Known about the structure:
Radius of gyration: 31 Å
Number of helices: 5
Distance between the termini: 85 Å
Shape: globular
Helix content: 25-40%
Amino acid sequence: MVYYEGEGIAIPRNETSDSRPFVKRVIVYGILAGVLFVFFLLMMPSVGPHPKAARRTACRNNLKQIGLALHNYHDVYGTFPPAYVSDDQGQPMHSWRVLILPYFYDSKYRALHDQYHFDEPWDGPHNIGLLEKTPELYRCPSHKDAEAGMTDYAAVVGDACVMRGTVPVTIREITDGSSNTVVLGESTGSRIRWTEPRDVSLGTFKHIGDVDGFSSEHDGAYGGAFMLHADGSVHFVSEEMPAESLKTLFTRAGGEEVPPY
């Protein structure tokens, strides 16, 4: 304040103050914020999901989506799809992987189904061109070396299985319990094309990890494979599980005691 002598009047005026301490604080806080931001960026790979773990989860989720499509198919037709559709001579023509395309929630798979010609075999002149359009859900992200057109998921096929060739199975026929019965699983080494009416045969199945059967040969290999059960659940099965024990999970009405896994 400035007082004028004799008048008793106080008139405010601007007074300059040293702002340097404030500026210094701003600079210090800015530097600290920058250091913390860089530290956070450096820590992100360790606090976020590991890439291999994320791909493993994606492989598992693909099986869940396939399970939903199988049940949607069952809701419409009253049965699960056959493993394949054959011609009059019994020659396999079309795979279950093609049959369930309209029953995924993504409409692009229905559109892909509409492009498929059922009046020619899977490897006919038109259908062979669809191999390059492999649905993402039929490929495991961890299997980076897979060739174009290949699928990483296969059903187990046999007279005692949920997929028993050309004969469809109802869920009521799975008397072992849908939660105790495997329908399909990871098969990254089998070299099956996604439209090909070929899967893993119960009769020739050896063990988890066999390249012609169920396996998970990719950058995130983890000593086993994910399996889809008839109730839509997905479980991990170790490659150390004996083949005979695993086969009890593959049969739908064997009445066997289900081993722990």
